[in-house]
Amino acid sequence: MQKVYSHENLFQVSNLKQLLEQQGIDCLLRNDQLRGGAGELAPGDVWPELWVLDDSRKAEAIKLIDKVELANDTDTWICNECGESNHASFEHCWKCRNEPRL
Where are the domains of the chain? Predict the structure, then answer.
């Protein structure tokens, strides 16, 4: 088991966990309950972490995470199905649920 990602935002880490699981990469979310320790513990120690269970899939997981983070650097994308404008962090169109981002 190896850590592939950590971020202060639990929602972001949870979304990446779901993305990896959709791609068949088993993973585990850790430190998701440590937010209450902020102030008592170092900030980085309470950030949620994403760990892959199969070490051989670590590189694949990191590649997917990097792809998502690169896509998040843009402002919006347009759905090919319905033409709706979507925030870059959306994996599917919020209106019609089409247009996978991967």
Answer: 2-71, 75-102
Q: What is the mean pLDDT of residues 28-49?
A: 70
The single-letter DSSP state of residue 16 is H
Q: Which two tokens stand for residue 17?
A: 């966990």
* pTM listed for this prediction: 0.62
Measured distance CA(87)–CA(77) in Å, rounded: 6
Give the pLDDT confidence of 55-100 residue by residue, as tens digits. Answer: 999 999 999 998 887 766 667 778 888 888 887 778 788 889 886 6
8-state DSSP, 92? S
Q: What was the pLDDT predicted at 102? A: 46
Residue 91, token pair as written in the block: 């994996």
Strand ranges, E, within the chain: 2-6, 27-30, 49-52, 76-78, 85-87
Q: Torsion angle of alpha carbons 6, 9, 11, 14, nearest 10°? A: 10
